[in-house]
Each structure stands twice: as C-alpha cells, then as structure tokens.
Design a protein that fits this description.
Radius of gyration of chain A: 17 Å
Helix content of chain B: 25-40%
Largest interface: A-B, 56 and 43 residues
Order of helices and strands of chain A: HHHHHHHHHH
Number of helices of chain A: 10
Structural class of chain A: mainly alpha
Number of strands of chain B: 0
Shape of chain B: rod-shaped
Oligomer: heterodimer
Distance between the termini of chain A: 42 Å
Largest sheet of chain B: none
Helix content of chain A: over 70%
Strand content of chain A: under 5%
Largest sheet of chain A: none
C-alpha cells in the first residue's frame, strides 16, 4: 500500500514521472502477477507487461483513491486475460500447471515455497481447480488480489450480490471437500 | 458448510465462513503474491516508460524532444505518409476533373494554366464544349443539307394528314411560295430558312395572330423556312406560337419535327 502519499504519486505518474510510475508498479505488480499465475497463463509476465502498459496509457482517465486504483488495475488485468485466452483459444477451465510453478519457485524465498507445498499437501490447490471458473476467479481476486467485494464486482462486471454468492459457494465447497479429506 | 444457495445459516455464520476461508487461503496469498523478479520488473518498467513517452505525457515531452525517441518518430512518419497520400489523392482527383473539363470555371482555368507548362493541354472554361454531329450547327438540320429526317417531314409526319389544322393541302415545306418547293433541294433556298424576307418570326402577319387559323396561312412563318428545314413539318401545325418557333427552328436547325405533335393547336 502506498497510503497517504497515493494522491501525490498518482499525480506525478500522470505527469510522466518515472519514479512515480515505478512506485505504482512496485505496489501493484506482485498481486497482478500472482493473480495471472493462478489463471494458468504460461507467459503471465508478458500479459502483466501489457497490463501495466495499458495502465500508463489510460492513467489520465483514472480518478480515485488507492483502493479504486487497485480495482482498476485488476479490471485491466482481467480484460488482458480474456484477450489472451481468446488469442490462444484456451479455456478458463484449463488447470494451472502447479508443477511448473513449483519448479519456478526453486529459487524464491522459503516462506513462499513452503506455502505452496502446504497448499499442494492439503490438496487445496486441486480443490480450487475443481471450482467453477467464476468461483475460482472470485476466490483468487479475493485471496491473491486482495480486492474487496465491490472491487471484485467491478473487475468481473458482476453485481456485488453475485460476487458474494460466488464467494460463499466457493468457501462452502472447499470446506466440505476439506472435511472429506480429513475424514478419509 | 453447505452450498450458498438456500443456505439456512445466518449472516454472521456466513461472515465467519468467509473469515475462515480467508484464513485458509492465507497460504494461497503467500505462495502467489511476491515481487516480480528484477529482470522482469526492469522489462516492465522500460515498457511503461516507453508507453508514457508515446502518450506524450507532459513531463515526458522535454525528454522526448531531447532524445528523439523512436516511437514518436514513428508517429511522425505515419502522419507524413497519411498527408502525402492525401495530397496525391487530391492531385489525381483535380487532374482527372480538369482533364474532363468538369471543374468550375476559374478552377478549370487555373488548373489548365498550371498544367500547360507540363505539356498537358486541358480545356479552359471558355472552350466550347464537345458536341455531337447532330447538334453541330454547321451540319445540323438547320442547314437543310443533312438531316436525319427528310426535310419537310418529321418522323411522325405532322401536318401530313388532311385532318390536321395548319394544312394547306400541300406537304409542309412544299408551298409554291416557299423555298422548299423550288428547284433547290428542300431547306436550301436562297433565302435563309424561316426568314421569308423578314426577320424570323416577324412576318407581315403577327405569327399566330393572323386571320388564318394558326399554322394555316400561306405566309405563316411556320410554313416557310421552318418547313424547308424539316423541322417545321411539325411546327407548321403548331398553332399560335408557330411563327416564332418556326423562325427559330429555321435559323437554329433545331430538330423539333417530332415535337410538333404536342404543339398547341395541332391536329385539332
């Protein structure tokens, strides 16, 4: 979070200040890249680059606070994601290649690698992959994107009530399957 | 926990469920959310800065001018290409219209003057328009020398029948007093067709106002020169206005024989 300085950073970024653009990128890129990783996009870094280039091009038209800015970035990311899937003819149901992710995490800090291994060990990643595409998107936007329900609704173009319902169903499904795993 | 639709639990229970979900998914956040690798971040930032330059953000403008960035040169080249294509299209358009003589007078003259040094002889606004042989006064029916229709006879042979008013009993153009009936070929009398010694349409009798029925008088201008030109065959029966019409027809060689059928007073 940039915090109270966000307005100033945004103003300078609109003026073309590279440092300000760097601050916005540093604040948003981990979540954007993380969300794209969860979507099974092989070249998620290229898609992320398109997201931030679009951000720069449309920055003059954005007005709002930091939360709105984050939601706006994820809206761009979601559109680029749809474009990328359309371009590659890839369905959103295609599973995330967690094995490749795990390999890529070979050099990352231990906490992240351990978290991923825990997710795999509990079977939670597979459970998430078994959710519907909408439930999965809502879940990842909440968990990885750290977006509020209204921001998720704007990002996906759905009513807030629909987003809340999707979250509840996803949580219930995951909880039920985890109980089943424990019972077995 | 059960599926959300029709869930009988209270809102508090559902809120707790979401909190539990967030707790469970904390590992998810930890596993996926991490800073971009340095090389990736550098690449992304470079693309963002290039995009900022392309968008000509105010602060980027001075740097842009100093660096002569490639993206902007690309934009300039594209704009120049568009302008050049537009100029070429306009030149071709104006040139084509000028060649066809279809431009407004002053513009046509200007274009002709501009093109003249290049060896292109374009028509000027005061040049006579190209005409067909049929409309050429020097070879038209007014001469009586060549008409597509036989002099004194229109295609519908107006004034031919005995029923038609304006008939003198003679074939139009064959009156004994008209040049058409002389030894010379029809329409080639010594006098100008349709004049009869008077100005066209100005015979001694007021055309159309003679005591005779319109087109019936022997001296009716409509029956003199007009007939000899093959036009007045129809015009001779033309009624009140025949005098002027015939005179004009004789002088101008208008091939109005066929029109005579519609002339007032005809064939009644």
């Amino acid at each position: 979070m940039i915090g109270v300085q966000f307005d100033d950073v945004l103003r300078r970024a609109k003026e073309g200040d590279n440092d300000a653009l760097g601050q916005l990128y540093a604040d948003c890129s981990p979540r954007v890249l993380g969300y794209l990783r969860t979507q099974g996009i092989a070249d998620h870094e290229d898609v992320a680059a398109e997201v931030f280039v679009s951000m720069v091009r449309d920055l003059q038209r954005f007005n709002g606070d930091e939360d709105a800015f984050r939601g706006w970035i994820f809206t761009i990311a979601q559109r680029r994601l749809v474009d990328e899937r359309r371009r590659r003819g890839r369905r959103p149901e295609d599973p995330v290649e967690f094995d490749a992710m795990s390999d890529a995490l070979g050099s990352v800090p231990t906490a992240e690698r351990e978290a991923l291994e825990r997710l795999r060990a509990t079977g939670l990643l597979e459970m998430i992959e078994a959710l519907t595409p909408d439930q999965r998107s809502v879940l990842y936007l909440r968990a990885v994107g750290d977006l509020t329900v209204p921001d998720i609704a704007r990002t996906l173009g759905k009513p807030e009530t629909a987003v809340k319902a999707l979250l509840r169903r996803a949580a219930a499904t995951l909880a039920r399957r985890m109980e089943q795993e424990v019972g077995e | 926990m059960s599926e959300g639709r029709g869930d009988p639990r209270s809102g508090d229970d559902q809120a707790m469920e979401l909190e539990e979900l967030d707790a469970v998914l904390a590992d998810l956040r930890t596993a996926f959310v991490r800073p971009a690798p340095p090389d990736v971040a550098a690449d992304h930032l470079a693309r963002m800065e290039a995009a900022a330059l392309e968008e000509r953000l105010p602060a980027a403008a001075p740097a842009l001018a100093a660096s002569g960035a490639e993206p902007v040169r690309h934009h300039l080249r594209r704009r120049l290409a568009v302008v050049a294509a537009g100029v070429v299209a306009v030149l071709f358009g104006v040139g084509g219209l000028g060649y066809a003589g279809a431009l407004p007078g002053p513009v046509q003259d200007t274009v002709a003057s501009v093109m003249e040094p290049f060896g292109l002889d374009l028509p000027r606004s005061d040049d006579p328009p190209a005409t067909s042989d049929r409309e050429d006064p020097s070879s038209g029916a007014g001469n009586g020398a060549r008409s597509d229709e036989e002099p004194g006879r229109s295609g519908e042979t107006p004034g031919r029948s005995g029923e038609s008013p304006g008939q003198s009993g003679e074939t139009p153009g064959q009156s004994g007093t008209t040049p058409a009936n002389g030894s010379e070929p029809p329409g080639q009398s010594g006098e100008s067709p349709g004049q009869s010694g008077s100005a066209p349409g100005q015979s001694g009798e007021d055309p159309g106002n003679s005591e005779n029925a319109p087109g019936q008088g022997a001296t009716n201008p409509g029956n003199t020169g007009g007939n000899s030109n093959g036009n007045a065959g129809g015009n001779s029966a033309g009624g009140a206005a025949n005098g002027n019409e015939d005179s004009n027809a004789g002088g101008n060689g208008n091939a109005n024989g066929g029109n005579s059928a519609d002339a007032p007073g005809q064939n009644r």
